[in-house]
Specification:
- The structure is a single chain.
- The chain is α+β, with helices and mostly antiparallel strands and 177 residues long.
- It has five helices and twelve strands.
- It has helices at residues 2-15, 34-43, 64-71, 109-115, 131-135; strands at residues 54-55, 58-59, 76-79, 86-89, 94-98, 101-107, 118-119, 122-123, 140-142, 145-150, 153-159, 166-173.
- The strands form three sheets. An eight-stranded antiparallel beta sheet has the order 3-4-5-6-12-11-10-9. Strands 1-2 form a two-stranded antiparallel sheet.
- The protein starts with a helix and ends with a strand.
């Protein structure tokens, strides 16, 4: 059953209609002043993340070859403790490789402190507790953290049960077990 959901999740971008591009051929004749463009840019800025595409610069489901092209060789490769997969360890994150593709990305607090924590290229800071502005209300609150869902993709912010401080962030396929 998980295979069917995974296939549907992978094919969903191809099953939806693409937006139509509107062409304005004479728009270059009327350039807008830079002050207006800067003002409009700030007005439309919305920090809310509506989809989870990548964590620490690594997208889910990309082939292992693509991961190596993006991030290079890992510092270490170890067996995943929970699944029959391999975990590639980089300075800024760890990546789970299952059946030749990225299944999850994990970032620890020390890694985020040194390299930053980027979701879809946007910096997030769980220690500031401002995630509601960026992620909204959690879809699930578990004993060990908050889970946010976007389609078939999930983001989990792990929290220490005693202190409430964040212990890590995982981006993963929500259909995987």
């Amino acid at each position: 059953m998980n295979v069917i959901f995974l296939l549907l999740g992978l094919l969903s971008p191809y099953l939806t209609a693409s937006p139509q591009n509107v062409s304005v051929p004479a728009a270059w004749l009327y350039p807008q002043p830079s002050a207006v463009l800067a003002f409009e840019h700030n007005m439309n800025a919305n920090p809310y993340v509506g989809s989870f595409d990548s964590l620490a610069g690594v997208p889910l489901h990309v082939p292992e070859e693509e991961l190596l092209r993006i991030k290079g060789l890992p510092l270490a490769v170890t067996p995943d403790p929970w699944q029959e997969c391999q975990e590639y360890h980089y300075a800024e994150m760890s990546v789970g490789i299952c059946e030749g593709a990225v299944l999850y990305v994990h970032v620890a607090p020390a890694q985020a402190g040194e390299y930053g924590l980027y979701l879809n290229g946007q910096r997030i800071e769980p220690q500031r507790n401002n995630l509601h502005e960026i992620l909204g209300k959690p879809d699930f609150v578990a004993e060990d953290g908050d889970v946010y869902l976007r389609g078939n993709t999930a983001l989990k912010i792990y929290r220490n049960a005693q202190t409430g401080e964040w212990d890590g962030v995982d981006l993963f396929d929500g259909n995987s077990s």
